[in-house]
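Protocol step 4 of 6.
Sequence for Alpha/beta hydrolase (Streptomyces melanogenes) entered exactly as in the expression construct, tag removed. Do not edit the line below.
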Amino acid sequence: MTAANGRVPVVLLHALSLDSSMWDAQREALERRGHPVVAPDQRGFGATALGDEPPSLDTVADDLARELDERGIERAVLVGVSMGGYAAMAFLRRHPGRALALALVSTRADADDEAARTAREGFVALMEDPVKGPAVIESTAPRLVGATTHAERPQVLARVRTAVAGASPASLAWAQRAIAARGDALDVLKATDIPAVVIVGEEDELISEADTRATVEALPRGRLVVVPGSGHLPPLETPEAIETELDALLAELDAFTTEVDPR
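Step 5 output, structure tokens:
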């Protein structure tokens, strides 16, 4: 399957607290163009059981590799938002050579510092508290979308609130601990010489400009896209903008494939 014949597979990796349904608009658009789409539920979310393995993004990456193997897919375009971006970078390290192109949305490449890890563990402790947990989890939803979504897209905020409220506290805790334990991925990005785009919402409260800049600069073929009117979840807040950027990335891959193999 190659970019040239329009059949390159695309993997869509979802954000924390949500599941693969957050990609429904992009999945439909890609499939209309003939692309096989793999949009898994990370363990503990959607239809996927959490399992007994200790928290690790390496486990998530290996889950994806196994699913691709089962589908007979050797290489694919990786697209990950937030936690899905962390999983994509773990996949790059664990399974080198299997990514054709890369889109990182609302994510960052450096590891958590001690303060961030401590904050995550504190959040996990609150989530696991049967009294405080529901209110703490509910409080995260408004921060996931931008001011424009709050003002103009109440249905998106309502969808995010429902998803966050419905997520299993055990799954949220597992994922937070896996994210906290991740290593720095700047080195693996520097070795990832494939078409790549780093996308961030202009109104994202969770990913800083410095984080985004470092991620873009690490990628040999990286470019930056700032999405107006979006917060941390552009695939839900501004789906058309993400569809446009994925089309552009696939066009870059087509040109890149012709460049490295002009036959």
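Step 6, annotate. The longest helix spans residues 239-260.
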